[in-house]
């Protein structure tokens, strides 16, 4: 009967203090975490970040919320403020947004034993340190670091839920392919504040070569071949040879400039830089050959 269920829900919070964690003053609270990745928005090397849309779920036991009903309660996100909620955060996050359309994408489940499951949907953009030495033949490993802001290992112990830690619903991307994903657990020290349980969601991306082949490798190769056509032009046809040489040099310089604007400024040479430098030497060499001969 509906009234019995309503009374049971209201009775959950009688004498309940949501300012105190479960088992306050006792052993650490075990929190199981699992993530479902709905999609990856982008892996953006210029800003060294990646974005993903996830269902983020946390589960723990709060014995204060045991109830006599023989079925779990499913409550909307509007009831979230009544519960004690762990202050979980993403250490390397840049921006994050909870989904609110058409309503808050939050779900709370309370079982008769006091087990709580909090499920939320959010979009996260996080920093990702990338090594671009092999660009565009590179493979990048990006992580999402999860831990508590206030509670150290004496209060909260995070663990990935067995066999369901990291689920990829859609790993398709235009520029990258997802090669691997896994959840890891470690301890992380923060100076002056203690040691915290630290979960890491790790994603390995490999760049698709098709875009670079079409936009960079093929045009550059054709420019080099075009510059070599001057060898078959009579040395007496000065305007034709000079115009062809200067045009190909300017074209490859423009191509190098456009690429420079699409990748971050790094202090090392990338694989694509070597390719373009060698191509530029071949193109510029055609002009030097004409001057020497």
Low-confidence stretches: none
What is the CA-CA span between the terminal residues?
100 Å
Question: How many domains make up the 3D coordinates?
Answer: 2
State the order of secondary-structure elements, H for helix, E for strand: HEEEEEEEEEEEEHHH
Instruction: Please count the helical segments.
Output: 4
Could you estimate the helical fraction of the residues in percent?
25-40%
SS-based class: alpha+beta
Based on CA atoms alone, the radius of gyration comes out at: 29 Å
Inertia-based shape: elongated
CATH-defined architecture of the largest domain:
Distorted Sandwich
The CATH topology of the largest domain is given as Acetylcholine Binding Protein, Chain: A
Mean pLDDT: 88
The CATH C-level class name of the largest domain? Mainly Beta
Please, what is the CATH homologous superfamily of the largest domain?
Answer: Neurotransmitter-gated ion-channel ligand-binding domain
* Major sheet details: 8 strands, mixed
The tally of beta strands, per DSSP, is: 12
Into which percentage range does the β-strand content fall? Answer: 35-45%
Q: How would you describe what is shown here?
A:
InterPro entries: GABAA/Glycine_rcpt, Neur_chan_lig-bd, Neur_chan_lig-bd_sf, Neur_channel, Neuro-gated_channel_TM_sf, Neuro_actylchol_rec, Neurotrans-gated_channel_TM, Neurotransmitter_ion_chnl_CS. It is a multi-pass membrane protein. Its main location: membrane. Residues 216-293 form the Neurotransmitter-gated ion-channel transmembrane domain. It is found in: Cell membrane; Membrane. 22% of the residues are buried. Strands 1, 2, 3, 5, 6, 7, 9 and 10 form an eight-stranded mixed beta sheet that branches. Strands 4-8-12-11 form a four-stranded antiparallel beta sheet, with no helix packed on it. A hairpin with a 4-residue loop joins strand 1 (29-44) and strand 2 (49-61). It has 293 residues and is an alpha+beta fold. Helix content is 25%, strand content 37%. The protein has two domains: 1-207, Neurotransmitter-gated ion-channel ligand-binding domain (Acetylcholine Binding Protein, Chain: A), CATH 2.70.170.10; 210-292, Methane Monooxygenase Hydroxylase, Chain G, domain 1 (Up-down Bundle). The termini are far apart.
């Amino acid at each position: 009967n509906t009234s019995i269920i309503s009374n049971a829900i209201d009775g959950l919070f009688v004498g309940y203090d949501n300012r105190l964690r479960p088992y306050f003053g006792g052993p650490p609270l075990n929190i199981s975490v699992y993530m479902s990745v709905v999609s990856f928005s982008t892996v953006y090397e210029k800003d060294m970040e990646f974005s993903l849309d996830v269902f983020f779920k946390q589960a723990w036991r709060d014995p204060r919320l045991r109830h006599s009903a023989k079925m779990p309660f499913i409550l909307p996100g509007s009831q979230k403020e009544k519960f004690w909620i762990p202050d979980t955060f993403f250490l390397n996050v840049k921006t994050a947004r909870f989904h609110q359309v058409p309503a808050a994408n939050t779900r709370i489940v309370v079982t008769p034993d006091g087990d709580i499951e909090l499920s939320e949907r959010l979009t996260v953009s996080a920093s990702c340190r990338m090594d671009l030495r092999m660009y565009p033949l590179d493979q990048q490993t990006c992580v999402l670091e999860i831990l508590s802001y206030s509670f150290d290992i004496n209060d909260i112990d995070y663990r990935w839920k067995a066999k369901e830690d990291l689920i990829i619903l859609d790993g398709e991307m235009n520029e990258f392919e997802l090669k691997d994903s896994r959840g890891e657990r470690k301890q992380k020290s923060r100076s002056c504040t203690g040691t915290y349980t630290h979960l890491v969601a790790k994603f390995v991306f490999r760049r698709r070569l098709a875009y670079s082949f079409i936009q960079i490798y093929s045009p550059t190769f054709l420019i080099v071949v075009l510059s070599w056509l001057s060898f078959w032009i009579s040395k007496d046809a000065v305007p034709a040879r000079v115009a062809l040489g200067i045009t190909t040099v300017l074209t490859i310089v423009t191509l190098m400039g456009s690429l420079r604007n699409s990748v971050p400024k790094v202090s090392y040479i990338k694989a694509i830089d070597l390719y373009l430098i060698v191509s530029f030497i071949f193109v510029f060499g055609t002009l030097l050959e004409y001057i020497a001969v």
